Amino acid sequence: MLINYLMVGLGASFGVLARVMLSNEIKRRWTRVFPLATFIVNLSGAFALGLLNGVGVSPTLSLLLGTGFMGAYTTFSTFNVENVELRRRKHYWSLFCYTGGSYVFGLCAVYAGILIGNVVQRG
């Protein structure tokens, strides 16, 4: 049982580092109002989690990569704070695109990951 907690913790440590590094790099280059960093992180995380699901990894690897890494890499709380901030600043078009795009493209990313994972699993 302890190994399960260690797997989640180890994965989360690397997931949060990956998110911060990628987000900082995107924010350094992207200066517009649209929160592209969180958008890319969450979509890539949705795709990767779908891929893991499609490939069908072991329960231990699922804890390490799915629950740990992806749980810390993606960020629903930041997504919500950024939505509130876009609304507060009256950037309605960005708010609409960010919220709608995150859900629509997030679902598409998961589905694409599952499909590709299924192909990979079959060899």
UniProtKB/TrEMBL annotation:
<comment type="similarity">
    <text>Belongs to the fluoride channel Fluc/FEX (TC 1.A.43) family.</text>
</comment>
<keyword id="KW-0406">Ion transport</keyword>
<dbReference type="GO" id="GO:0046872">
    <property type="term" value="F:metal ion binding"/>
</dbReference>
<feature type="binding site">
    <location>
        <position position="74"/>
    </location>
    <ligand>
        <name>Na(+)</name>
    </ligand>
</feature>
<dbReference type="InterPro" id="IPR003691">
    <property type="entry name" value="FluC"/>
</dbReference>
<keyword id="KW-1133">Transmembrane helix</keyword>
<keyword id="KW-0915">Sodium</keyword>
<feature type="transmembrane region" description="Helical">
    <location>
        <begin position="34"/>
        <end position="55"/>
    </location>
</feature>
<keyword id="KW-0479">Metal-binding</keyword>
<feature type="transmembrane region" description="Helical">
    <location>
        <begin position="61"/>
        <end position="81"/>
    </location>
</feature>
<dbReference type="GO" id="GO:0140114">
    <property type="term" value="P:cellular detoxification of fluoride"/>
</dbReference>
<keyword id="KW-1003">Cell membrane</keyword>
<protein>
    <recommendedName>
        <fullName>Fluoride-specific ion channel FluC</fullName>
    </recommendedName>
</protein>
<keyword id="KW-0812">Transmembrane</keyword>
<keyword id="KW-0407">Ion channel</keyword>
<dbReference type="Pfam" id="PF02537">
    <property type="entry name" value="CRCB"/>
</dbReference>
<dbReference type="GO" id="GO:0062054">
    <property type="term" value="F:fluoride channel activity"/>
</dbReference>
<keyword id="KW-0813">Transport</keyword>
<comment type="function">
    <text>Fluoride-specific ion channel. Important for reducing fluoride concentration in the cell, thus reducing its toxicity.</text>
</comment>
<keyword id="KW-0472">Membrane</keyword>
<feature type="transmembrane region" description="Helical">
    <location>
        <begin position="93"/>
        <end position="116"/>
    </location>
</feature>
<feature type="transmembrane region" description="Helical">
    <location>
        <begin position="6"/>
        <end position="22"/>
    </location>
</feature>
<dbReference type="GO" id="GO:0005886">
    <property type="term" value="C:plasma membrane"/>
</dbReference>
<feature type="binding site">
    <location>
        <position position="71"/>
    </location>
    <ligand>
        <name>Na(+)</name>
    </ligand>
</feature>
